[in-house]
Known about the structure:
This protein is mainly beta. It is built from 1 helix and 9 strands.
Amino acid sequence: MPIIRLIANMVLRLRDNGFTPLQRAIVDTGSYWSVVPRELWTLCAVDIIEPNSPIIGFAPDEVCHIPASIGKISGIIFDDEGHETRLLTFPAFLAHTDDVPLVLGFADLLSEFQVRFDYRTKSAYLDERLL
């Protein structure tokens, strides 16, 4: 069975209201939370909600936990054709390490859009919902 990876382009809002260079993020439709590596979020305008909340996956062993904070961060998602979302603020695990990828979960991101996947054409896109 082939592995399908969904990748999005995005920028994150910096503390000075500018934006990071374009980043490639893994889109994880099965993850509620987004995950941001330390090298990115420490440059960004973040609102720390819980300073000590490790990322805990399937392995219950504490050795497998990834130290992190929970916070809110803002960014814009782009596609390869130049379309972009409005500025979105979303909850994320703010990892205390750079040994994690940038991951977009569905909380306040994918929940704001209709997510379309077409396996046959190997394409995916977001449709902004009219709320």
